[in-house]
Amino acid sequence: MRNIGLILRYDGTNYCGWQRQKTEISIQQKVEEAVEEVTGESSFVQGCGRTDAGVHALNYLANFETKSNIPAERFKYALNTKLPDDISVLDSFLVEDDFNSRFSIEKKTYRYEIYTNEIANPFLRNYAWHFPYELNLELMQSQAKKIVGTHDFSGFMAVGGQVKTTVRTIYDAVVFKDGEKVVFEVTGNGFLYNMVRILAGTLCYIGAGKIKEDMKDILESLDRSRAGITAPPEGLYMKKVYFGEKHE
Amino acid sequence: MRNIGLILRYDGTNYCGWQRQKTEISIQQKVEEAVEEVTGESSFVQGCGRTDAGVHALNYLANFETKSNIPAERFKYALNTKLPDDISVLDSFLVEDDFNSRFSIEKKTYRYEIYTNEIANPFLRNYAWHFPYELNLELMQSQAKKIVGTHDFSGFMAVGGQVKTTVRTIYDAVVFKDGEKVVFEVTGNGFLYNMVRILAGTLCYIGAGKIKEDMKDILESLDRSRAGITAPPEGLYMKKVYFGEKHE
């Protein structure tokens, strides 16, 4: 058996998320079906994390085992001929036998995009949060920096998350303007359920003056009710997964 | 009766084009339905030109007459509450009684977007032509300049176009890189059926070395078979309509 790593890009608009569901169509199902078509084997594709319905990925890491002798780097081309046009394989490569996309990664970067114009942009309806308020970017940037470090993020976790610990390490958090959009990017060793969307919602509420509290106080309160709303899924992108020097 | 001008932005992916059709859903139908909901009158909305199925608009000009006393600038907000989220009204304003979006305009700019990476981008599947070839941008730029001026463009017209004259004046034509995309923009006093898409297809074929002829020779031949393919609709955007100083 060989273990094949994949970097995927997908538009999550038409899916229930990464993970297989009984009644809805997931990205995992589409990728597994493509692997089965290409290898003739039944397949399980391990992803680097769940993504919710409507959430996107610029670079998502996954891996699967196969007995086929197709060269690792050829899977990219073979799978792209089988996948729907809202999912692409950007790269395929051999990984160590014990490599697991969920457990072998060091850190991840998420990106959250916000469109603040008064009038909604038809081209961004599935790709950014339409939040039509003037945002104080400098304030958002300085407030974002306050989550950097190792903290208990239980105030930024949606109900339903089941985890051993709510402590996570955030390596960087930035807010900047990108064309007509405002972007929040955050890199950490892991994220609680809906954590990035709650952070994005809280920072936008602070930037719009709807929350007057300091991010540090909200964080230390461990109180979900003091943070902002959960920003909608369409603005969220898994941007990058770090898994050792070779494939960073 | 007052005559109201509208600037629309729309994602054309899910429509048969601007113009009403019996069996398919058009942008014109959606805008007329929104006007009828807002004014309570039956409406005809005049557009600035047909766009094909899948073609988009960043700024599309339209106008309609109404007896309602809603202030012209309020129509923007009222219509946006009724329109689907792939169509937005960016602006609304009073125009002269004899103003007609089709006949009163001076020039239009179309934009055509091309994505040349080897692997298709899921986020651009409906918004750019995936043409995975290395393009010589300098050559495309110098070749694009050869269509500037007043010429008979019958070699760049699809079968089915019915026009009194095939002579059009092109004021500017440019090719440039915009992020990961290659963009062709062309401004003229009018365009023949599929003319921008055939120009885009021809320039890309020249840029990829698939056509070795000079644009000037192709143009002067008046021979459709010497030009390149009709580039697909998803890359095409109506970018701007010029209709007098007041609303340029």
CATH top level label of the largest domain in chain A:
Alpha Beta
Q: What's the architecture of the largest domain in chain A in CATH terms?
A: 2-Layer Sandwich
Kindly name the structural category of chain A.
alpha+beta
Count of helical regions of chain A: 5
- Main sheet record of chain A: 10 strands, mixed
- The general outline of chain A is globular
Order of helices and strands of chain A: EHEEHEEEHEEEHHE
Q: Please mark out the parts of chain A with pLDDT under 50 across 5 or more consecutive residues, or reply none.
A: none
Most extensive interface, chain pair and sizes = A-B, 19 and 19 residues
Number of domains of chain A: 2
Count of strand segments of chain A: 10
CATH domain topology of the largest domain in chain A: Alpha-Beta Plaits
- What's the end-to-end separation of chain A, in Å? 24 Å
Percent range for helical residues of chain A? Answer: 10-25%
Mean pLDDT of chain A: 94
Quaternary status: homodimer
Rounded to an integer in angstroms, the radius of gyration calculated over CA atoms of chain A is: 19 Å
**Beta-strand content bin of chain A:** 25-35%
- The CATH homologous superfamily of the largest domain in chain A is named Pseudouridine synthase I, catalytic domain, C-terminal subdomain
Word description of this protein:
Two copies of one chain form a homodimer. Chain A has 248 residues and is of the alpha+beta class. Chain A has two domains: 2-102, Pseudouridine synthase I, catalytic domain, N-terminal subdomain (Alpha-Beta Plaits, 2-Layer Sandwich), CATH 3.30.70; 107-241, Pseudouridine synthase I, catalytic domain, C-terminal subdomain (Alpha-Beta Plaits), CATH 3.30.70.660. Chain A has five helices and ten strands; from the N terminus they run βαββαβββαβββααβ. Chain A has helices at 27-39, 75-82, 137-144, 195-207, 215-221, and strands at residues 2-10, 46-47, 56-66, 87-95, 107-115, 129-130, 149-152, 167-178, 181-188, 236-242. In chain A, strands 1, 2, 3, 4, 5, 6, 7, 8, 9 and 10 form a ten-stranded mixed sheet that branches. In chain A, a hairpin with an 8-residue loop joins β2 (46-47) and β3. In chain A, α1 (27-39) packs across α2 (75-82) and α3 (137-144) crosses α4 (195-207). Chain A is globular. The two termini of chain A are 24 Å apart. At the A-B interface, β4 of A face β4 of B.
